Amino acid sequence: MAEADPFKPAAADASAAAPRKAARAKLLRLVVLLLVPALVVGGTLLWWFGSPGEVSTDNAYIKQDIVSIGGEVNGLVVAVNVRENQQVKAGDVLFRIDPAAFEVAIRQADAQIAAAQANVTALSADIGANAANIAGVRDDLALAEAQYAREKALQDRGFNTRARMDEAQHAVAAARDRLAAVGAEVAKARAQLATGAQVPGLNPQVAAAQALRAKAALDMARTVVRAPVAGRVTQVNRLQIGQMVFAGVPMLSIVRAGGARVEANFKETDLARMRSGQPAEVTLDAYPGLRLKGHVDSIGAGTGSEFSVLPAQNATGNWVKVTQRVPVRIALDSASGANQAGGNQADDRPLIAGLSANVTVHVGSK
């Protein structure tokens, strides 16, 4: 009787398991080949039809109105009433300029007004005196004419000389000249006292002096520089006591309160579906938990390159087309915390000008 082989059952099991493994591998490959495309198609359809269309950019920044403050008159700074990052209200005193020179100008203007008024009084007195002189000169003229008539009558009868006639005639002419001169003086004084249509009832010299006085008083008032708007003061380090202020040269700046907005630079290819009023969401790199709600306020009238100092010149042989960026202003409506446990609000976190932002605009279905 032949002896049984102990390895035959093991070989039989191995040969039977091989087809089962091949079948399982084939089934796995089939599942993968079917499942992966199905997931891709399903995800694409879900993204396309199940979520609203949106465009986004990280080329966005917080913008605020910044008012440059300078002196309106020249002078030395004698007092600084604010410090860096201080909150001020409209009308608060920022700094003061030495008023000494303007006080002198006011006194000079007052002296000019007094001189003009004295001149008016003197002209009025001259008119009165010349009016009295006119009466006397007219009497002299009448006497000279009467004397001439007598001399003429005597000459007609042959009892007079030519010399006496010439003397009488000269006396009449002289009296007439004096009357004309006095009349001219009166007319001149009255002309100097006359008023024009621009300042009726007021002598022009007095009006000019009063205008100089008003200008000096205005310059005096401008030595106290006040905040034109409410906000936060910055760049105060340029303002020091003893520093010379020149009219029109900025000395400090105020970041206007309540004027925060976002300027987002979107690609020109994103503008086809963007419209004013569409909702937007803003996040800031500085405050990761803060989400700002807003809307599209306006779309820029030109690309960023059009308003640059050196606009691009594309009429060259080596021109390369570059996707342009268009500034879009986002108005902020409200803020909400991504993590409500923190209770983040925009009021608790200052929106500093220049902060980097990420903007997403919901443009509706695709």
Characterize this entry briefly:
This protein is α+β, with helices and mostly antiparallel strands and 366 residues long. It has helices at 8-50, 100-156, 162-193, 204-221, and strands at residues 53-63, 66-70, 75-80, 87-88, 93-97, 224-226, 231-234, 244-245, 250-256, 261-267, 279-284, 290-299, 325-337, 356-364. 41% of the residues lie in helices and 25% in strands.
How do the helices and strands line up, and which of them pair or pack?
Layout: H1 8-50, E1 53-63, E2 66-70, E3 75-80, E4 87-88, E5 93-97, H2 100-156, H3 162-193, H4 204-221, E6 224-226, E7 231-234, E8 244-245, E9 250-256, E10 261-267, E11 279-284, E12 290-299, E13 325-337, E14 356-364
Antiparallel strand pairs: 1-10, 1-14, 2-9, 3-5, 3-8, 4-7, 5-6, 7-9, 10-13, 11-12, 11-14, 12-13
Helix pairs in contact: 2-3, 2-4
